[in-house]
Amino acid sequence: MSDLQGPVVPTPDALSALRPLPADAVQLSATGLLGGWQARNAEATLPHCIDQLGVHGNLTNLRRVTGDADAEFAGMWFADTDVHKALEAAFWSGTASGFVDEVAALLEKAQDPDGYLDSFYQDPAHRDRQWTELHYSHEMYTAGHLIQAGVAAARSAPDDPSAQQVLSVARRFADLLVQRYGQSNEVDGHPEVETALAELYRVTGHRPYLELAARFVGNRGHGTLDDSRFGPRYFQDHEPLRESTEVTGHVVRMQYLLAGAVDVAVETGDRELLDVAERLWDSALESRTYITGGQGSRHRDEAFGDPYELPPDRAYAETCAAIGSFQLAWRLLLATGKVKYADEMERVLHNGIAGSTALSGKEFFYSNPLQLRTGHDGSHEDAPSQRLSWYSCACCPPNLARLMASLHAYLATGDADGLQLHLYSAGVVASGGHAVQMETNYPWDEQVTVTVSETSGSPWALSLRVPAWCNDVRLSINGASARAHVEAGYLRLHRVWHPGDRIVLTLAMPTRLVSAHPRVDATRGAVALVRGPLVYCLEQADVPAGVVLEDLSLDPHSPLAVAFHRAGPFPVTLQVPVRTSAVPDTGLYGAWPPPATTGPSAVVTAIPYFLWANRAAGPMRVWIPLSPSPR
Amino acid sequence: MSDLQGPVVPTPDALSALRPLPADAVQLSATGLLGGWQARNAEATLPHCIDQLGVHGNLTNLRRVTGDADAEFAGMWFADTDVHKALEAAFWSGTASGFVDEVAALLEKAQDPDGYLDSFYQDPAHRDRQWTELHYSHEMYTAGHLIQAGVAAARSAPDDPSAQQVLSVARRFADLLVQRYGQSNEVDGHPEVETALAELYRVTGHRPYLELAARFVGNRGHGTLDDSRFGPRYFQDHEPLRESTEVTGHVVRMQYLLAGAVDVAVETGDRELLDVAERLWDSALESRTYITGGQGSRHRDEAFGDPYELPPDRAYAETCAAIGSFQLAWRLLLATGKVKYADEMERVLHNGIAGSTALSGKEFFYSNPLQLRTGHDGSHEDAPSQRLSWYSCACCPPNLARLMASLHAYLATGDADGLQLHLYSAGVVASGGHAVQMETNYPWDEQVTVTVSETSGSPWALSLRVPAWCNDVRLSINGASARAHVEAGYLRLHRVWHPGDRIVLTLAMPTRLVSAHPRVDATRGAVALVRGPLVYCLEQADVPAGVVLEDLSLDPHSPLAVAFHRAGPFPVTLQVPVRTSAVPDTGLYGAWPPPATTGPSAVVTAIPYFLWANRAAGPMRVWIPLSPSPR
After folding, report:
1. By C-alpha distance, which of B324, B341, B329 is closest to B399?
2. Residue B630: is its pLDDT beyond 60?
């Protein structure tokens, strides 16, 4: 077994139901959907991010500190984090070594003797503000991303000098934090350093990092942060996390805080804190999560919003929030082994996260709405009509790069019992003397074929997740159909395996009409179309000319067909029976019941949500109104 | 006829279908709803505002300029405007003379020799920024409110020395604007000065003020304003107003700009510009106005939002936007005589505006949502659970004060033909040798009794508006029923009138179930209850204990009763047949059709929307889901 590791590696003594596999245990095939994304990331997204860091001055900001540039400081005050995230992505990816070497040297040179490293607050004009405005400064958030780059360096390239350099820089900053905040009640306005410090402890075994992470988790919620204009809930400073029962405030901050809390909980054996994280996760899933897995209903403060407040058109659903949700679910899956976390990883990955990135891999959404209206003003960054190549706050693209570069690490786990496959895509999983090959065109196809390629002579269990959306699972082993006994969400196949043993898992994917809880006012009288893990949507490009997308309604009693395409950007589309409505002339408000306005029927194509906005900019909707019942 | 005048008095040569009456032509009775509001304003709201100006440092800011205070500058950089608006309110109200005298002297003393007056930019620390950041500074917006105070001074108390002092101060600032910007292409980020300058022209006859107003209307839309983070549409700088076909951006800015455009159009005889204003007003009413008359669907940038984007829960619907809508509609009514503008004045006044103020007259909403959810985080100013006594940006309360103080001026108009009554409330209307008394408990009662108390011997027309919501209007004159011939929205009764002639107008008010245009996704499958001009709502206080408001649905086929109350805060309530729903255990998303969950029936009370949040803070909703049809 290799020493290489991926993100989130609990120590052997941690609370942990499942163990992550070594970083090179899973090899995704670029012919599969996930492997395709990972390959695109290495070929397009990460190089694009590195390019943009040059264009937008992020690297120059650091060169100002070293005296090698004299331009104005450029971008957001936490612009360094985009560098750190791209660096982390480069380590996981094992590519872009020129960038890695350059940045490693630059960071080392820019770091202050005491370990401080933040090009905004090292600016002579801002230096006196260091550590004085934690509610706003993102200094520890920046440190956190630097530390995560250091962790990635250590786990992915332990023998590489540049990696060692980055780890050293990260440790020096972490040591400064320990020295400065080890006895403090203060906390940063933007969580992130908690999980980073816990991970650094895992890499180094240096316990003060873990203790500081635990301290920061506990420090939050005591009102020590200067009030923001959004109130203390914005950064979860309104009540101690342990007393919280519901997610609230800025979504990414909440997700990152919970990730740190889980890391601390499992490493310190703090089951109570782990319970808190599970409870809050449940609260998010019960009333504050879009059908895409996106979270965050409000643009104003990038916040969760009230329970059941889930407007499709004004979904904020930040890409980073979806990434945070995925990373949190992975931590909870490792800690508890509960399938619901893997189910959510699948949903948010295939919809909320995947939808953020253009087919080119070089354009991105920051917010991920579930509806774009006719007449939408998509002229600025907040809610653009199409993906943009970069943002003034460019947190999402390099965050995508680091996730996609490490995506293989989230596919499977191991335990004393054997291997667990949580996500399906073509590739190889090999660990602990066992190896299997996955052949599948999932989620376009229903079948996943798993072939044992390496095995010990002893019995072991191959566990295959059966998604919660699947009501009809079939199994065959070596050509003979077998009983598919699903226990706690997994098919656990325990036996002595032989090389060449072939398991075919069929997860039936009828198109489902889904409705939301009746308290979700924003989608009342509408359904979403879902096939397998994929949410579908209607896009203006597929609607007959002259028809306004908003005037289509779905006839739920007409048959709906699935179309498979060998070529083109949309491998599987749905053929949706709709009716068009004449626009009533009663104005904006009129007497109920409204006049019947249902017009001719038609069939329009629905495409996977994650592939929207890859043609001409235009209206889109996930939730489709139901045609009025005939009177 | 008196010389006293109210807001918006076009010159005799202006394009004007109707003429405002002198300011003292209408006397509202405090026993009527509108007169009660006006009395409450004089007794509670205006004194409260004056008090808060002291508490929050607005007056001290000006005393810093005169050297009479040395506190830190307090509040928003445009804090002076709250002083100016309260001063304007005091003039219209004819009360608070101590405040008037004090502020008049203070403003005169604080004014720079060249006429400049803005306590933020007169601060030595900011003085070098004067006129350098027009996209942000609100300097002309501040000047505009000062000028409007001067206009109110001149019209309401022409012989009062303090009033003369305020008019002089306002003119000096206006003269500075003419001198500085008379040949400029620049424009302020926040419209307001346009209408103020046009009104000052009307008061003074000094044409350069009108010319500058016209210039500013034309200057906007050429991209001269530094981009805000919300893009140029935010301040309507993306295209010239004359080329615009739809309202967009920050609602208050749009409303104030249109008010200025109408003033300029009617004074310069610019029918094309008037058409533009009408077209944009139509676009707002067609797809971007709440059923309360509120406008603004987005908290982030206080903006209109996309067409048909009208979420009840996240309605921004700023109080100032509703006031702006009312003031714009009045201008368009005067210019065109079209009843739709008076209809909208009635709607927004009785719902969107009235709902902003607590029964006490001392607490206010800034945003006016149409739904407040169970679990709402109402802990901060943006979307509080209850009205607050003041806001860090306190534009709304003094804006309410100035509107309510001048409310009588918006009731009726005159023309060569006679009198037109647009709004109904108990009071007297006397102008041009004609006088009528209105006796009514409208909108609680359906009947308005108009008695002629003074008349010439010649025939003249008394015109009574018949609201668009009314399908059943009855008329009697001196006890005999008469044919109610409604023409273009008015009953025009033309004859020789005699003192004591008694007209009884009955506007039938059956409770109406109203649904929104099918493109309004946010209220699909729900209805609003409307009686007369009043929108109703359900409030948690009226729901049986243990029942969650969100779980109620309305059975549209069960009878709905109206209850009249002699005492208590709610003169007329509705008794609404509802069903309770058990919460499905299918989670947030489940297969369509959802399981039937309709529970027992009940009858709950609905109260007028404008009276919500006068009891314990709790959930509220205007749009009530319809019970599922029995299968």
Report:
1. B324
2. no
What is the C-alpha separation between A552 and A543, in angstroms, rounded?
A: 9
- Ramachandran region, residue B32 (left: φ > 0; alpha: ψ -120 to 50; beta: rest): beta
Q: Looking at chain A from residue 537 to 566, which residues have their Cβ under 8 Å from any Cβ of chain B?
A: 550-551, 556
User: Hey, which residues of B are catalytic here?
Assistant: 302, 395
pLDDT, chain B, mean: 96
**Of B151, B153, B336, B203, which is closest to residue B262 (Cα–Cα)?**
B336
Q: Which two tokens stand for residue A60?
A: 């120059």
DSSP letters spanning A75-123 = S-TTTHHHHHHHHHHHHHHT--HHHHHHHHHHHHHHS-TTS---HHHHS
Q: Which of A231, A311, A528 sits opposite B379 (nearest CB)?
A: A231
Neighbours of A223 (CB within 10 A): 11
User: Shortest CA distance to A21 belongs to which of A414, A441, A609?
Assistant: A414
In this structure, the strands spanning A459-465 and A490-496 are antiparallel
Q: Between B131 and B380, where is the model more confident?
A: B131
Give the pLDDT score at A1: 46
Higher pLDDT residue, B127 or A546? B127
- Tell which of A297, A316, A366, A521 to mutate to test the B interface (max B CBs under 10 Å): A521
Task: Give the tens place of pLDDT for each residue, B561-574.
Answer: 999 999 999 999 99
- In this complex, do A592 and B515 lie within 8 Å of one another by their Cβ atoms? yes
pLDDT at A583: 67
Tokens of A631: 């009177």
Which A-chain residues 268-297 have CB contacts (< 8 A) with chain B? 285-287, 289, 291
Q: Which of B406, B396, B415 is nearest to B460 (CA)?
A: B415
Q: What is the 3-state secondary structure (H, E, C) of B17-42?
A: CCEECCCCCEEECCCCHHHHHHHHHH
Amino acid identity of residue A595, one-letter, is: P
Can you name the residues that pair with B516 across neighbouring β-strands?
A: A589
Listed as ranges, residues in chain A with pLDDT below 70 are 1-2, 583-584, 629-631
Instruction: Please tell me the distance from the alpha carbon of residue B329 to that of residue B611, in angstroms, as a whole number.
Output: 24
Q: What is the pLDDT of residues B4-17, one digit of tens each?
A: 999 999 999 999 99
How far is Cα A390 from Cα B451, in angstroms, rounded to an integer? 69
Nearest CB neighbour to A526, from listed B305, B524, B594:
B524
Residues within 8 A of B (CB atoms), A 365-424 only: 371, 373-377, 379-380, 382
Q: Which residues contact A487 (CB under 8 A, 6 or more apart)?
A: none
pLDDT of residue A631: 39
Alpha-carbon distances of B149 from B84, B142, B163, rounded to whole Å: 6, 11, 9
Residues B287-310: what's their mean pLDDT? 98
Give pLDDT, residue B584: 67
Report ipTM for this prediction.
0.95
Instruction: Decide: A309 and B588 in contact? Cβ < 8 Å.
Output: no
CB A233 within 8 A of CB A270: no
Contact call for residues B580 and B552 (beta carbons, < 8 A): yes
Contacts of residue A298 in chain B, CB cutoff 8 Å?
299-300, 314
Residue of B nearest to A301 (CA): B300
Which of A88, A139, A267, A302 is catalytic? The answer is A302
Residue located via tokens 């959802």 = B594
User: Which is higher by pLDDT, A584 or B531?
Assistant: B531
The pLDDT value recorded for residue B229 is 85
Tokens in use for A360? 């080119």
The phi, psi pair for B606, rounded to 5°, reads -110, 140
A459-465 and A418-421 beta bridge pairing: parallel
d(CA A242, CA A277): 9
Task: Answer yes or no: are the C-beta atoms of A390 and A52 closer than 8 Å.
Answer: yes
Tell me the DSSP string of A431-450. Answer: ETTEEEEEEE-TTTSSEEEE
What residues of chain A, 472 to 531, have a C-beta less than 8 Å from chain B?
Answer: 512-528
User: What are the tokens at B370?
Assistant: 């149409």
